[in-house]
Amino acid sequence: MSLSKPALRLVAEPQQFYRSRYASEMCRNGTVLNRFIITGSNSAQFKYPTVEILKEWYNQGLYICVILVTVPTEEAPIQCIHPHPIDTDEVNVVKNEYRNSLFFPITEEDCVNGFKSFRIIRKKLVQYELKNYGPLHIVHSNDNDIQRIDDPSDVRKLSKVYQLEKSQLLFSLVQTDPNGRLIVLSATSVYSNIMTATKDRVTNNNVIIRCSPQKGHWIGGDDILMVIPISDRKTPCEIYFEYPSLQRQEPVSFRFVDSKTITFTTPPCLIEVNENHKIEVPIVVRQNNQEVARVNFCYEPSTYNCRCNNDSIFNFIDESNTSELSSSSSTFCDVDDDLAEYM
């Protein structure tokens, strides 16, 4: 079988904000409640993260590997396997708990439909589990990451350095060798958007901050739309990209699209391209000498296709003018999460 396969294409991304849950929260009166990762808005109305499947992949013994991974930061620029475990209730799925990965077989139905959706359960480790987890494993490697904190049992510091409230799903095509071993084709890998855990449900009393797109080219030049919680657009406002490790701020010029939506162009990243090919940089908005908004932006090499199409940008503007309650529930709230899926 040829090792040459095209890169996977995500047709439905996971929801960007969700409420994190411990395993104990997924059991009610002795009944297990499967809280699946669901999608944000998508034109095909897929409920779960979905990738495109080619018809010629039928009967080739192929799988899709799904791994939960960390998001690179300045303090931890190497992408690692996320310690919070993922699982599924689907049958015939090969599970590797040590690598926190799930191998979903590509079926005839998937090839006929042209897509495959993934019902994935994500659980949050409690402190003592995280304390005893050990070093994080580097993605697509047999090596562990270097020790980045003085005390490996310091859960708070570990969570801060790796920003464990953030994660991504990594999808890769997998084939079997003559001995039946699963071989991950890393050249086919694709990362989902960044998912951010919230401790509690976001209500219409909370501030709504949105940014689209949330990733772009390392050389800059991407047009950004951002909804910010300012009370008076006539009051001077400043926006900059913040680099704590460099002790620098890169200001940007902006203009208002409507009363709460601004647009600006990303400047080139001030940090040299790292071997992991991506880095998160905070975008900060200040007004009256006070910080009113902060959101992370992910820089990726210019070879990546990161740009957002015009339709999604215009949809973003339209959504920003909806009622606060509607905007809050559609952007931040995992609706199925609280309705619960009883399986």
Automatic annotation (TrEMBL):
Give the matching InterPro entries. p53-like_TF_DNA-bd_sf, RHD_DNA_bind_dom, RHD_DNA_bind_dom_sf
Single annotated GO MF: DNA binding
List the SUPFAM superfamilies hit by this protein, alphabetically: p53-like transcription factors (SSF49417)
The record places domain RHD at 3-120
Q: Which domain of life is it from?
A: Eukaryota
Coiled-coil features, chain-numbered ranges: none
- What this protein is called in its record is RHD domain-containing protein
